[in-house]
Amino acid sequence: MNVRKVAVPVLWLLAAASASAAGAMPHTRCGWFDNPTPGNAWLIDRDGEWAIAIQGSYEAQGDWPQFTDAQWVPVNGMHGHGCACIKAVVNTKTHEVVRIASARARPLAVCRKDRALREPKD
Questions:
Q1: Residue 2, SS3?
Q2: Nearest CA to 53 among 79, 35, 27?
Q3: 97-98-104 Cα angle (round to 5)
Q4: Which domains can be identified in the chain, with CATH numbers?
Q5: Is 27 helix (H, G, I), strand (E, B) or coil?
Q6: What are 50's strand-pairing partners?
Q7: Distance (Å, whole) CA 60 – CA 32
Q8: 82: exposed, middle or buried (C-beta count within 10 Å: 0-12, 13-18, 19+)?
């Protein structure tokens, strides 16, 4: 049996599996970053709610956006919501953010002017 004939297809399959498991390329999503309570956060965009963190069960890899006081609506102490864009790998079946590659805060007015977005009530 020729080991090379077997090894090449096996290596190709392993590479393909690891590429899909690692996730696709990050895509940019913009909308309301909602962090109403400790350990809970979502990005709400025109396609729905994307779970970033659920206290005690799930948290995406990567850094959350950093907001100034002018970019943040406080609701529960230091918690609340702001307008942001994240470049992230997401699971479209579960609506979970898997990994945040980058994140940036935006002025509140940008999300408030977008008719496809509804501001969180927290």
A1: coil
A2: 35
A3: 55
A4: 23-113 (2.40.50)
A5: strand
A6: 43
A7: 17
A8: buried
